[in-house]
Amino acid sequence: MSDVNWWLMVLAFALGLLLTFAFMIRRVTREVPVYGPLGRGPGVDVGTRDPGTGDIEIADTAPFGAGSVRLAEASRTGPPGHTIKGNEDSMLYHTTDSPSYEQTIAEVWFVDEETAVKAGFGRWDKNQTK
Question: Which residues span the membrane (predicted)?
């Protein structure tokens, strides 16, 4: 191989790499997930707390079937009889024996574990059973 051909091969390879990286790297325009299909997030009006009483307002009854409730705003306290917290982002549910139960802010509340499992949610610790 002559010296000119060798340099042309290196130049073509380098330009190919440069163009590949130039087309792969682009500016990120959105860094937050879109919550529109889930019925919550910025710009989606799903209700508020009752200003007079401060009671929790239910936005959707049975979003995942009977025994599930979506509140107007995510909270740490749910409606009476609903003790299972559901997280729609991770599709996990937390029971009262979960170490992070108190810190978890639920988007969906369930009456029991069976209802959460039927809705497609997984247990917070998949290695444990009831």
Answer: 6-25
Distance CA 72, CA 60 (A): 8
Going from N- to C-terminal start, the domains of the chain cover: 40-123
Contacts from 43-48 at CB under 8 Å and sequence distance 24+? 46/70, 46/72, 46/73, 47/72, 47/73, 48/72, 48/73
Collapsing DSSP states into helix, strand and coil, what is residue 16?
A: helix
Q: Is the Cβ–Cβ distance between 94 and 87 less than 8 Å? A: yes
pTM, 2 dp: 0.53
Whole-angstrom distance, CA of residue 71 vs CA of residue 37: 16
DSSP string of 23-55? HH-------S---GGGT-STT-------TTT-P
pLDDT in tens, 79-99: 888 889 888 888 899 998 888
* DSSP conformational letter for 100: T
What is the DSSP code (8-state) at residue 76? Answer: S
Query: How many Å apart are CA 14 and CA 23, to the nearest integer?
Result: 14
